[in-house]
Amino acid sequence: MKYKKSLGQNFLIDKNILKLIANLGEIDRKDVTLEVGPGSGNLTKHILEKNPKKLIIIEKDKLLINKFLKNFENDVVIINKDILKISEENLSNEKMIIFGNLPYNISTKILVKWIKLKNLNYICKRLILMFQKEVADRIIAKTNTKDYGRLSILSSWRLDIKKIKEINPRCFFPVPKVKSTVLLIKPKENYFKFKNPNNLEYITNIFFNQRRKMIKKPLNFLFGNSNEISKKLNLNPTNRPQNLSPEVFYEICKEYENSLSQ
Description:
Layout: E1 11-12, H1 15-24, E2 32-36, H2 42-48, E3 54-58, H3 62-67, E4 77-79, E5 96-101, H4 107-115, H5 120-123, E6 124-132, H6 133-140, H7 150-158, E7 159-167, E8 172-173, E9 180-187, H8 197-208, H9 216-223, H10 226-232, H11 246-260
């Protein structure tokens, strides 16, 4: 089996892990499923065994489609496109269960794209995703930990996330140099509303670009005067970004958006 390093391809081959991931989907005959980056189709087989109403496959590598996924062409809808250029809203009129052993090199871009989808909780029922362990650690990190940062805050804004299992590199081909982690993710029904989700990205970038600096500096940059916003939100300007909960960043973002409209 040939693989493309440029596409971050590492194919999951451990049957027990494949069964675990398929079971996490809780698929029934009424469900529409989506698999991103199916590779050689190892997980595809297990998903189809659950008899979903429909399985949509998105695979950028045309060679993989021609060599392996053509074996499933009567059972699945194959889309040969880049997931970052796909409009998920147009894939199905029903909520989907999304599976993905996401390419290491673009996994965070894919996740952030999904997080910012306006109708995510209408598009998706749940997601079962595999990430490089260090990326998964950043996604689920809590306040006051070394891994806490922009990705943690963006993820907790729209998603409920449960860590399922760390996966040994030997479960893949080719064998990667790092461990992986399976996450079970469900979109939140209720979440903080912003005028533009890009503003939350912008603000967290401002703060965490200098994560060891006191928050007074980024507050001054965003608002001109940190004293007023610190008093309004009851912030200690000597705190560091990792000391602030996600909810505090949502409030800061709200105030920032209000300042733009004044």
